[in-house]
Amino acid sequence: MRRRAFIGGLGAAAAGAALGACSGPDSASRGGDADFFIDAPTWGTGLRRAGERLRAVTGTGLAPQSIPTTSSYEQVIKSQLQTRNPPDLIKWGSGYRMQDLARTGTLAPLDAQWARAEKRGWLDPALRSRFTYRGRVYGLPLQNGYYVMLYNKKLFARLGLSEPTTWDAFTHVLETLKRHGTTPIGTTQVNAWPAAIWFGELASKTDPDWYRRVTMGRASYTDAAPRRMMRMWQSMIRAGYHTSPDRSFDDFPALLKEGGIAMYAAAVSWTTQSLEAAGMRPTTDFGAFLLPTVSAGTERTVISEAAGITAAARASGRRQSLELLDHWLDPDVQRPWSSFLWGSSANPTLPWQEPASRRIQREVAGGRLRVLNRYWEASPPALVEGNVQDLGGFMADPSDPDGVLESMQSRARTEWEYWKKETS
Amino acid sequence: MSTGTPAHQAPPTAAHRPPRRRDRALPARTGFLLPAVVLVTVLSTVPFVLTLWRSFHDDRFVHPGWAGVDTYIQMLSDPVVLRSLLNTLFWLVGTVVLPVGLGLLVAVMTERLSWGRWARTAVVLPYALSGSAVAVVWNFLLQDNGALNSALHALGLGAFAHGWLLTWPGNTVVLIVANAWQATGVAVILYLVGLQGIPPETVEAAALDGAIGWTRFRHIVLPQLRGTTVVVVGISLAGGLKAFDLIWVLTGGGPGRSTETLAVSMYWESFVLQRPGSGAALAVVLTLVVVATSVAYLRRQLRSA
């Protein structure tokens, strides 16, 4: 009898615990801060600072929850959004990434929040298309940045190198660095997405028009321009200009500091945080330049990355989240956030502190630099995921560039057809 | 001695059967069986039937359309899936041969040694680690700038240094070796138990007959370890077919999806590409491989037992 009572009690306790677990997260609905899921663990501090300002205005702050690797993050979020208790707020990619998530019907529309922010001059209307699916807005920009080549200034100075402005000068830099025993460029395929960075850089500097058209499904991966580009990439890999593709992208700041690599492509302004954490000081230890175009007459472009902040449609604290998002782009809220990122605020009224991104921002505003979307967000996710795997395979074994392009084109045919069918 | 019904004893007819007693036992029997039946139905049978149903439908999330065997045809003509199937077969062979062979070797070699327990502890210890932790450790070892290549350079064997995780099929082989490093521990434990269960008289009798060394091991010890081997091979087969965490953390299935097994491909289709139909079809194929392997193995073992 005592044993039965014990087992019964144990069962009741387990059932109680299970019910408790099902009752939902400690979210904005209970008067706490809004859960904000992000894939960048180091951003928690900046978001909490912005959250303090938001709490003063709306009564709800931000409680950042981080899941480090991009692939794990995306899978966890997609699964959680299907549940009855999804997170209140979610960081998500713009462009087709945003559309892919919005089409599942799990995101709350943010048209009113966007309209109010735009009316107050807190938003660049040109960004709207990156957060829109079937005419409705599903995200507000979390940050906006540009891809540059970050380089070790002291290493360049020691070897008598300067920031290259032409492809010939860039090639000279690569040859000099290699001759002196330094791997010139940090690139990798670990965690998949970094393979897209160098592909995007190289493609946009070879033929920006082809890059723009192919990401929209209006050009072929087997055109002459990509074939030329892949052969050039192949010769660069064979010349030893790239790191081994099994290096981690997270190692690059430390490698840059110790001279293991001389440069790598990354987004400013926020990547400079990692360099400073590695012990490098801006302007004296590291600098940034735009990768030159391969041919002299090619239009100058820059790759941009804009992530979004979205709200889950089924979140228990949805009302508070939407109220909070009404003030997300408020300069008072953006100031601590932008200060934390060294710039990159999507609110155009806030100046960017980081010199390279400020310089690019001015050039973009002056029409001297055309902005292109990052490859990761510029095409349907399934197409990009598959193609990035192909590119990762190419980085490991660059023997068949044409085969890689044919595989990418074959996937493009089926995935664009699938995407159009799914979203028509 | 026969265990059948004696000829002179007629089987009980319905009229003579003690119905009350049986009826009283029925609810109790049902009560004992019910939790297991419900658990197996809810957690295993229903999901399998749903997965099977899903695999014959397209990849739409909402209102999926009937696709028949199209998904299977498309999947089996995909070179990535075919390589994934081949990798799964590599894993099947590798995870049986390596842990079983190494486990037996370590158990036999260290059984009678005074310092054997320390050697066994070193081999058994990785079994306590999670697959993800093992992957992180092996990543330090196998990276291009990792410990293995550094050691080869230090020993003047730099010509053998290369990207261990970068080219197929070598990367799949090193993943299987990493898995064997972890899985051998359980084989050692089981073989030690098996060795201790061998009656010493049989070994002594063989010694008196002049059987020593390999001959004694081959003809006296090994046959008596048959039961243990059945269990070790069974566990290794299951471990090989469900291999996921080690691959996912160490290579993510790459580069170029070259290290995927069916379990990783299923995850890739279902959760990365969000293709529930294709993911379900891969799950069904994986189930068929698991069931076919298990049934073939167990039938063979049970028949010979």
**What is the rounded Rg of chain B?**
26 Å
SS elements, strand count of chain A: 11
Shape of chain B: flat
- The termini of chain A sit apart by 64 Å
CATH class of chain B: Mainly Alpha
Distance N to C terminus of chain B: 20 Å
β-strand percent of chain A reads: 5-15%
- CATH secondary-structure class of the largest domain in chain A: Alpha Beta
Membrane topology (chain B): Multi-pass membrane protein
Keywords (chain B): Cell membrane, Membrane, Transmembrane, Transmembrane helix, Transport
Subcellular location (chain B): Cell membrane
Pfam families (chain B): BPD_transp_1
Describe this protein's structure.
The complex is a heterodimer of chains A (424) and B (305). With 424 residues, chain A is an alpha/beta fold. Chain A has 18 helices and 11 strands. Chain A has helices at residues 2-22, 44-58, 70-81, 95-102, 111-119, 153-158, 167-179, 194-206, 208-215, 224-238, 252-258, 272-277, 318-325, 331-341, 355-365, 375-378, 381-396, 401-423; strands at 34-38, 62-66, 89-93, 132-133, 136-137, 140-152, 183-186, 261-268, 286-289, 301-311, 370-373. In chain A, the strands form 2 sheets. In chain A, strands 1, 2, 3, 6, 7, 8, 9, 10 and 11 form a 9-stranded mixed β-sheet that branches. A two-stranded antiparallel sheet of chain A has the order 4-5. In chain A, a hairpin with a 2-residue loop joins strand 4 and strand 5 (136-137). In chain A, helix 2 runs antiparallel to helix 14 and helix 8 packs across helix 9 (208-215). Chain A starts with a helix and ends with a helix. The model of chain A is unreliable at 19-30 (pLDDT under 50). Chain B is mainly alpha-helical and 305 residues long. Chain B has one domain: MetI-like (MetI-like fold, Orthogonal Bundle). Chain A binds chain B through residues 71, 74-75, 78-79, 100, 104, 189-192, 244-247, 381-382, 385-386, 389-390, 392-397, 418, 422, and chain B through 59-61, 142-145, 163, 165-167, 252, 254-258, 271-275.
